[in-house]
Write the structure tokens for this entry.
Amino acid sequence: MKDFERITFDPKIMGGKPCIRGTRVTVGTIVGLVAEEYSFEKILELYPYLEKEDIHHLLNMLPGGLMSLGNPSQLYENFN
């Protein structure tokens, strides 16, 4: 079983979508940015309250990892 220490699920926040550590930043938002080839540094500029480890953690939570999915741009639709 995977550890969700940096990903939270709360029906009162963003309609229960998975978010980073209780923020209103959804997993789908970050996965979408990664799929659009945003660097971790750029994502952290956009969301300065996140940590690089947050991004690493959520990408490692994906089944098989991000690169095994073939077309990562479809991730945004699946997680957002």
